[in-house]
Design brief:
Number of strands: 8
CATH class: Alpha Beta
Number of domains: 1
Bound molecules: phosphoenolpyruvate
Number of helices: 10
Radius of gyration: 17 Å
CATH superfamily: Aldolase class I
Order of helices and strands: EHEHEHEHHEHHEHEHEH
């Protein structure tokens, strides 16, 4: 039985005081949500404040990125060990915005996943097709490539896969339940090739314009084990409703 995993990706939003205000209001809303794993990924600058507030709540602190080297002359970068040091236990890797705006490739993603795991971090590994790729009938080809290359040489322990069709991110356009289920089932089949029956234990979560209004139907899909939430995770009311989804 896979425990649902719901993560907030705040992207480049919220100052330290806004982070503290959110978490102060959010904690009481989720005190009875022990049947769901909840993660929050604030920007780097808010990680220490968030770490202090969520200590002992069971909420996971995640970072939105890392660099794959342990230390050295990499101006502006943050290493896996620095994230562990600050209290992170997960990190988001392979988000389409990182691939699109910062030119991260499958190879970079694979290096980052390996570095994160070496440091003991769990990984929320994002993948998904663009609109052009979907319309050209290439969705499965993309998912196969991203799964194989991203996870090459990686053991599946503490890996959460996030299927995020790029055309659904921040657009208000959610995948239909059929599209989500089909993609998740396909990814699980691919995982089975590398990981055998362990593929059935891995959480595959959906991301792309999740809101309080659509979370229940998406979460009802057999192979959807959670959600990665951008815009709707910025307000504590909507994110609270999402983590308290009803199946
Ligand atoms: C995301 O960026 O991971 C995401 C799913 O964003 P949104 O929920 O805003 O579509």
């Amino acid at each position: 039985m896979r425990k649902p995993f719901i993560a907030a990706n705040w992207k480049m939003n919220k100052t330290i005081s806004e982070t503290q205000e959110f978490i102060r209001k959010f904690i009481p809303e989720v005190k009875d949500s022990s049947d769901v794993t909840i993660a929050i990924a604030p920007p780097f600058t808010s990680l220490p404040a968030a770490a202090a507030m969520i200590k002992d709540t069971g909420i996971i602190l995640a970072a939105q990125n890392l660099f794959y080297e342990e230390k050295g002359a990499y101006t502006g970068e943050i290493s896996p060990l620095m994230l562990v040091d600050i209290g992170c236990t997960y990190v988001i890797i392979g988000h389409s915005e990182r691939r699109q705006y910062f030119h991260e490739t499958d190879d970079t993603v694979n290096k980052k996943i390996k570095a994160a795991k070496k440091a003991g971090l769990g990984v929320i590994f994002c993948m998904g097709e663009s609109l052009e790729e979907r319309e050209a009938g290439k969705t499965f080809e993309i998912l196969q490539r991203e799964t194989e290359k991203g996870l090459e040489g990686v053991d599946p322990e503490s890996i959460v896969i996030a299927y995020e069709p790029i055309w659904a991110i921040g657009t208000g356009k959610t995948a239909t339940t059929e599209q989500a289920q089909e993609a998740h089932a396909y990814i699980r089949e691919k995982l089975r090739v590398s990981y055998g029956n362990k593929a059935d234990e891995l959480c595959i979560i959906y991301g792309g314009s999740i809101t309080p209004d659509n979370v229940d139907s998406i979460m009802a899909c057999r192979d959807v084990d959670g959600a990665l939430v951008g815009g709707a995770s910025l307000k504590f009311e909507s994110f609270s409703r999402i983590v308290n989804f009803r199946r």
